Amino acid sequence: MTAMGPWDCALDTLRGWDPSWSAICSTMTDNPWQGGVLPGKFLELVGVALNAACTNLNPDGTRRHIRAALAAGATREEILMVLKMASVMSIHSCSLGAPILLEEAKAAGVAPAQKSEGPTPSCDRMRAAGQWNVAWEPFFALDPQWTDEFMATGVSIYASKTFTPKELELLSIAFDASYTHMYAPGTRRHIKGALAAGASVEEIMEVLKLCVVQGVQACNLGVPILAEELARIETQRR
Known about the structure:
Blueprint: H1 8-17, H2 19-35, H3 40-52, H4 59-71, H5 76-88, H6 92-107, H7 121-128, H8 137-142, H9 144-159, H10 165-177, H11 184-196, H12 201-213, H13 217-237
């Protein structure tokens, strides 16, 4: 499965145990790399995103796809930008939790403490750039200064010219639709943004396919371990 990088040991073992299924799985996994819908470099950058995402943190997969992205011509700045995006997706904890906190506090008759008013330049820049998300309003209301501190980490991503708007939206779809996240509001928002930025339905579908292909990491991780444990049991029987 060249699409997922050099995991020959796991694949060779899997072929020996189940040649039919491994062949079918290999074909499915390689499909995005064979279709030509997205450039090879961008495919690898999506691979970096899926593996390095704060909801996944797969060191082996991250290394494989960084290596492949560099070989495909990706720059340090491009890969670093993906890693920044992989970090700030953690804001969805507040996107999910802050509205619930406000609702339950109201139901319990508990009022949040009033935060002192102060400038929020990063939030202002996000709004001016059209990148402000209404889902951020609840935690902005709860703690505007911290929200501004967080948004300062995101301003450089959206202000940067490292990626085109379409590429940013496609990468964001990968983060939100990944099976370790499955954040529906963000997936819809970024699909809408990708279409508006000129992405085709086929390009978006390729990103979703890459999210599914990531599932083969279960075999990449587990098959060698299973082989080792079977060998250990066999050794004990001798």
